[in-house]
Major facilitator superfamily (MFS) profile domain-containing protein (Phanerochaete carnosa), 417 residues
Amino acid sequence: MGSVFSALQWLVSPHIGSLSDKYGRKRILLITMIGNILSALVWIQSSSFASYMLSRVIGGLSEGNVQLAIAILSDITTAANRSKALAHVGIAFAICFCIGPPIGAYFASRPLPSMTLGSFELNVYATPALLTLVLLVLETVFLIVALPETRGKRAQVPASEKKAEANGHTNGHANGHANGNGVAKKAETNGKASGSAPPAPKYTVEQRLNLLGILRNLHFLFLGIFSGVEFTLTFLTFDLFDWDNKQNGALIGSIGIVSALLQGGYVRRAMSKTGEGKMARRGASACALGLVLLALVPPSIARQRTLAVALLRAAAVCMAFTSATVVNALTAYASLQCDDGGVDADTGKVREEHPELAKGKALGRFRSSGQLGRAIGPLLACASYWTFGPAITYAISAGAMMVLSSTMKKIASRRPT
């Protein structure tokens, strides 16, 4: 079911992004919200697997709020504060990841007094579906009233950045972010040594398109591996520790809480200093370590259960760090390669946006690649888990993540030519 939803996202995300470039972020976002509301309505009365699948198909084809939120934030932020702003999306995800499932489980255990509503037959989970519908309607009303259109708007550059630009430092700083590394610091150091700070060279359109392709591939491969781990983790705890839903929920919830705290504290502040590429690589390395620990859990439990639980919890901390860093960093990195539009500072003319670098389309394609990974990863991980066992599955995944982390070295140290 989850793979179907992600596969539909893979198909539709680029088109949603392109439409938002043409017709505006707000208009397309409201249309996708209508689709989500329709999905909830079908879910309320779905009393068969086919009707429930229909609701998920409608929802998968309508899910555009995440990528459009990222595009909106990219419209109104500068290169210097882009990563910090996008971290709020990850924080919101982590918080909802913690509180959403318990709320749904609570209301699912309290069915409506009457399981029919007029001519509609309600399913046993109609209460959480109704709650979802109410929240979606409220969100849609809020967006209509409060959300401005951001397409084509240019972020206000803070006075401090304008001053830096006057001194010749801004290009080094902005390109430091665009390159996902510490170019800014290097440019500033060179400037102090020579008495001036020459602008750092910028990426050409071809270089940015090539880099976006690399980032899409990394996004696909990372989420393919990571989502497989997420999907099979509860299999591991049930098979080896005989944990119930409450214990599994506590484990998953703790990962979400730690991830939210890391994003709100460490990641939001550190990414602008370390660079998006380096932060993504750190997260991938942490994931590889977590997978190694998970691979050690099955052989450890036969000798010492306490050690096996400790390994599991240590792996969960690694997964939380990974969840807080990699996707956020790659998304910010991809966003910084998109065209800003606006006025060229050198010529005073309006810059023409490259169609492949328009934020909506470029970020839609980026998200699409990740959703394809989410569609394929769980299927492969489950097949491996039940065929070869958890130890081999996590060991193979750890090796793949190590290779991926090594590949990320290219974007962590990339320099424009």
User: Anything to note?
Assistant: The two ends are 45 Å apart (CA to CA).
